[in-house]
Design goal:
CATH class of the largest domain: Alpha Beta
Number of helices: 7
Strand order of the largest sheet: 6-9-8-7-10-11
Shape: globular
CATH topology of the largest domain: Nucleotidyltransferase, domain 5
Radius of gyration: 19 Å
Strand content: 15-25%
Number of domains: 2
Length: 256
């Protein structure tokens, strides 16, 4: 079995795969102040709860967009699993040709999403990850990552709106019944929700226009299903897209 970890700015998504089968899946907070022992104890407790034996883990693969905790997590893997983890970094075989001007700038989670989406659906394919930031990635039919777009995540934008203004309150992201709201709360929810649906639709349409052909659109992340229910451009929602991509990358490197 392998342990896959997707370290994001808000959460660490963690999955245990037995071949292609996901045995267990957890989301834990990205605690930058945690020590390796705290991360290790937390994971061992999760393993025990699911009746999984840590000694059955044969390999660990990690995607991280939080460099400040990489050493801590790496130390945890060596101390608690007796394994050196594989980080998604230059030199790791992905099967994707990255056309970024500087490939080192590309987030490892976006690489994993691209690998996962192309492996499962072929190309062209557009990935959308609704995380702390909303990220788009485009892979063509020849498995080339062409680039994408990034804008603030919907929760981050809503927090900025309430903290950056004197009278607007904090609010929960929800789909209101009407676009024309009659209260401040419904105005905020309408603008944020339908505004994001509109932005997503417009960006996808522009990307398809630049590609000159249609493309499958795959969404992941915490807000993916809510946006997909209203959007007409999202074809598939896959909450495990990134972790599946890590598994695909692990397997390709073992074959190599």
């Amino acid at each position: 079995m392998i342990l896959a970890m997707d370290i994001g700015n808000t959460n660490i998504k963690t999955g245990v795969f037995d071949a292609s089968t996901l045995r267990s899946y957890w989301r834990i907070s990205t605690q930058r102040q945690y020590t390796s022992d705290e991360f290790g104890s937390l994971l061992l407790n999760l393993f025990a709860h699911e009746k999984l034996d840590p000694e059955t883990i044969e390999g660990i693969i990690i995607s991280s967009v939080v460099p400040t905790i990489n050493f801590t997590v790496e130390h945890m893997c060596r101390s608690y699993f007796d394994l050196q983890p594989m980080f998604i970094a230059p030199g790791v075989k992905t099967g994707i040709n990255i056309r970024y001007e500087n490939p080192r700038e590309l987030g490892s989670d976006r690489i994993a999403n691209a690998v996962s989406a192309f492996t499962q659906y072929g190309g062209p394919v557009i990935t959308i990850d609704f995380g702390t930031a909303t990220t788009f990635g485009v892979v063509d039919e020849n498995a080339a990552f062409l680039g994408g777009a990034i804008f603030p995540g919907i929760k981050l934008a809503s927090q900025a709106l309430s903290s950056g203004t004197a009278k607007l309150p904090s609010f929960e992201i929800a789909q209101p019944d009407r676009v024309i709201g009659r209260t401040t709360l419904s105005n905020l929810q309408s603008g944020m929700f339908y505004g994001y649906v509109g932005m997503v639709g417009h960006i996808v349409e522009m990307m398809k226009r630049e590609l000159g052909k249609d493309a499958t659109v795959v969404a992941t992340g915490g807000m993916a299903q809510m946006i997909a229910d209203e959007s007409h451009v999202i074809d598939h929602v896959d909450g495990l897209l990134t972790l599946k991509g890590l598994r695909f990358i692990w397997e390709r490197n073992q074959e190599a």
